[in-house]
Write a sequence for this structure.
């Protein structure tokens, strides 16, 4: 590794990912280790681009997201990740972090995955660390769990286990696409982080969620190996509904799905009845993502357009450093 030079700068880009088998619950909050592994597709739309510039004159890190200076919880999470990078680099130099997130606020997709994947990639480079993809994935994980998967192109499996074991890596999968259906772009009422904590502490079903998700991940990876898109789709939809079931079983309960979300799950079933293999999933909010064969994506988009604004996403690139000419 090179010594961190004051004035060093790097820019990285990363995309959001949508899990087919979900991460919901931590085994360790300090190291951000998941209770189970998960499987996702990195999207080719809505990138986050982040620049980290070292500045020996700065008394503290500065965080600017979408042109607004951030303090408080958001900045604290960024500073914590920079502290990890500085510890690895043996540096105490502070940094300017500038990030542009292109997820239209109307899409309502979480940006923490693309955000922390881009931040980890840019910060490691700016501080002169030469990390491989596994080490970058582990670093991104510490910022936000799902960010471990946005380091990886196309389809990613993120392993549970110890700090050393818990990184994401690419896995071969059938030729799939997703349709992102935006039901409601408003800020969610309970953050993923808080809702996960409440699930672990209060849901009587949490142990069953952990056991069944570990089994679903094994079954999903077997479906990937077999190239069986429909089996993978069934596992995806079942796992999503199980996650929402365990979330609804908290005390006090949390419900992320709205009536329109449920209508979109019903629409997926109608599409299947018409011979189009579409399967629905949803994260910690009312938006629904439909998984389908790559060549059915436009049809699926058009068949849900009366319920929600819908866009096609295809398997996208992993996190990347951008040369100065492309910033
Ligand atoms: C997932 N989600 O697998 C699941 C499904 C949301 C629903 O990962 O606390 O923002 O930062 O590690 O990664 C969202 O949780 O949580 C998430 P932290 P994160 O995509």
């Amino acid at each position: 590794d090179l010594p961190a030079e004051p004035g060093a700068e790097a820019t990285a880009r990363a995309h959001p990912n949508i899990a087919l088998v979900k991460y919901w619950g931590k085994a360790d909050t300090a190291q951000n280790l998941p209770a189970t592994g998960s499987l996702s597709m990195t999207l080719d739309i809505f990138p986050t681009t982040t620049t980290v510039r070292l500045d020996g004159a700065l008394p503290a890190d500065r965080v600017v997201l979408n042109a607004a200076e951030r303090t408080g919880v958001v900045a604290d999470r960024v500073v914590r990740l920079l502290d990890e990078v500085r510890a690895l680099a043996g540096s105490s130099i502070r940094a300017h972090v500038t990030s542009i997130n292109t997820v239209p606020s109307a899409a309502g997709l979480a940006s923490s995955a693309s955000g922390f994947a881009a931040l980890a990639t840019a910060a490691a480079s700016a501080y002169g660390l030469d990390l491989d993809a596994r080490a970058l994935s582990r670093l991104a994980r510490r910022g936000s769990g799902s960010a471990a998967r946005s380091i990886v192109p196309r389809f990613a499996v993120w392993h549970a286990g110890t700090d050393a074991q818990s990184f994401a890596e690419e896995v071969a999968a059938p030729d799939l696409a997703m349709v992102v259906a935006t039901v409601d772009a408003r800020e969610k009422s309970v953050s993923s982080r808080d809702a996960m904590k409440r699930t672990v502490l209060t849901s009587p079903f949490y142990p069953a969620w952990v056991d069944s998700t570990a089994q679903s991940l094994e079954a999903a990876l077997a479906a990937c190996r077999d190239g069986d898109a429909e089996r993978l789709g069934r596992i995806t939809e079942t796992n999503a509904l199980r996650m929402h079931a365990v979330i609804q079983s908290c005390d006090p309960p949390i419900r992320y799905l709205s009536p329109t979300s449920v209508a979109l799950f019903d629409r997926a079933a109608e599409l299947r009845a018409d011979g189009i293999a579409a399967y629905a999933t949803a994260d910690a909010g009312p938006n629904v993502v439909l998984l389908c064969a790559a060549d059915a994506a436009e049809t699926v988009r058009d068949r849900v357009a009366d319920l929600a604004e819908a866009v096609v996403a295809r398997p996208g690139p992993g996190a990347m450093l951008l040369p100065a000419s492309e910033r």
The longest helix spans residues 206-226. The mean pLDDT is 95. The chain has two domains: 9-173, 176-313. The CA atoms of residues 194 and 200 lie 10 Å apart.
